[in-house]
Amino acid sequence: AGKLAAVLSNFHAVAAGGASPAEALVSVDMLREAIDAEAFQPWFQPQAELRNGKIVAVEMLARWPQQDGGMIEPLRFIPLLEQHGLIDAFTEQMLARSCRHREAWVRDGLDLKLAVNISALCLGDAATADRLEAIVRGEGVDPASVVLEITEGSVICGSPTSLSVLARLRLKGFGLSIDDFGTGYASLSRLSHVPFTELKIDRGFVTGAPGVARKKAVIEASIDLARKLDLRIVGEGVETAEEWELLARCGCGLAQGYLIGRPVPASELPSVVADWRRPGA
Ligand code: C2E
Ligand code: MG
Ligand code: MG
Ligand code: MG
């Protein structure tokens, strides 16, 4: 408990841009306790079809709220969960809880596909495909309603095991998405060996694209590639109406970003969906 207090007071220094590595104080016990207590929360960010503005999917983004009202971001705690061998337990719990939220939305007439980020480490275990399928089906969800996002970077160092896990997940019906496309230096040859169903253009190319020819070129080439490989395509980081319109003109399928909605707790998602109006509508 003393350690936790130290982390919490330290966290503000980090959040404020200080160099103090608060995460160095997070012990394996604290992480395990946080999993057991369901202290991590699944938040959700909507994805809308550019064609008609309809919200058809959500991406689950994990959050770790602190008792003092602070919030630890996933880029800080995911690496710790990975280091301490807890990423599988974390991922399985968050997937199950996200499926439960999805089912509640479906019951309320909101049929949303669910996207979940999967760490490269989870793909190193041959049993992962069976386990993820069992979890999803255990919550009454068809794997076809779930998209697993794998960063482009983690496909680069893909072992034979991870490639076969991905293939088995696809055979079970899961969608497979290349996250942060354009940032990971993965060869197109390697990417084409994984049965992906979706490509997400990294936010670095989308945000600000209307004024930057270089970004626009990457977006157009990504969309062209996705079309030819028959992949669904999502533009990340859409913050303005101009960025929305650019993606729509280029024939991008889906948009995700603060323009449509920020990540919110499950309880707030229905009102985000109800309040959303696409640009020009
Ligand atoms: P990601 O999967 O690429 O998720 C998109 C990130 O961009 C999220 O950051 C989201 O909040 C942020 N974002 C979305 N729209 C906008 C926008 O319009 N503008 C800006 N500036 N940012 C936007 P977040 O939630 O901090 O997550 C960061 C990364 O952490 C994620 O990147 C993902 O790789 C990882 N992550 C989050 N949750 C999980 C999880 O449950 N498991 C694993 N393995 N990784 C996770
Ligand atoms: Mg993602
Ligand atoms: Mg991404
Ligand atoms: Mg990204």
UniProtKB/TrEMBL annotation:
Domain of life: Bacteria
Chain ranges of the EAL domain: 24-277
GO MF annotation, one: cyclic-guanylate-specific phosphodiesterase activity
Keywords: Phosphoprotein
Swiss-Prot/TrEMBL GO biological process terms: phosphorelay signal transduction system
Protein name: EAL domain-containing response regulator
High-level lineage: Bacteria, Pseudomonadati, Pseudomonadota, Gammaproteobacteria, Lysobacterales
Complete-protein stretch covered: 131 to 411 of 411
